[in-house]
Amino acid sequence: MKILVLNGPNLNMLGIREKSIYGSETYEDLLNLIKETAKENKIEVEVYQSNHEGGLVDRIQQAYFDGTEGIVINPAAYTHTSVAILDALKGVSLPAVEVHLSDVSQREDFRQISYAGMACVKTIMGKGFLGYKEGMEFLVEKYDRKGE
Ligand code: CA2
Fold first, then answer.
1. Which residue, of 19, 55, 82, 144, is most buried by count of CB atoms within 10 Å of its CB?
2. 3-class DSSP assignment, residue 124
3. pLDDT tens across 16-42, in order?
């Protein structure tokens, strides 16, 4: 199985600033956890981070053609603004899990809408880096159950 993990703007700054909200572990630490999770579950993983909406849309479209079977996405601030990312996820029709490090339901009003989430089979929030592991394992289980 092949999973794509997508990260939106500023997540490359993890562990450098805003540690009280997003923790002190770095983006490199997150990449290690994702790779470790892929190894444990014997799957292939690709990770892509972009600070640009169009870059994320392009990568979602590419997933349709490159054999990706599931997407874990933290669109970061684009969660709350991007109909383009929502349309791209709907367009490729791959199972997608939305992940947020923080519990957005307990934050500002402007974070209460998630466009990307409307195209996702599951949303995980407030579990830090472990949310990515849970999201990947949810997709693996779903894939393994396919055809049962
Ligand atoms: O909780 C999450 O994972 C978010 O997707 C993070 C986004 C935020 O806009 C969403 O509402 C919730 C922000 C990511 C910014 O990450 C930074 C990390 C370090 C320093 C600055 C920003």
1. 82
2. strand
3. 989 999 999 999 999 999 999 999 999
The pLDDT tens digits for 71-97 are: 999 999 999 999 999 999 999 999 999
- For the entire predicted model, the pTM comes to 0.98
- Amino acid at site 39: K
Helices marked H in 1-148: 19-22, 27-40, 53-65, 83-92, 130-145
| 30 pocket-lining for ligand 1 (C-beta < 6 Å) | no
CA–CA separation, 127 vs 114, rounded Å? 17
Q: Helix, strand or coil for residue 48?
A: strand
Q: Which two tokens stand for residue 79?
A: 């969660």
Q: How far apart are CA 66 and CA 68, in angstroms?
A: 6
Cα-to-centroid distance, 50 and ligand 1 (Å): 13
Which candidate, 145, 126, 146, 123, places its Cα nearest to that of 135? Answer: 123
pLDDT of residue 95: 98
pLDDT by residue (tens digit) across 97-111?
999 999 999 999 999
Q: Is 103 in the pocket of ligand 1 (CB under 6 A)?
A: no
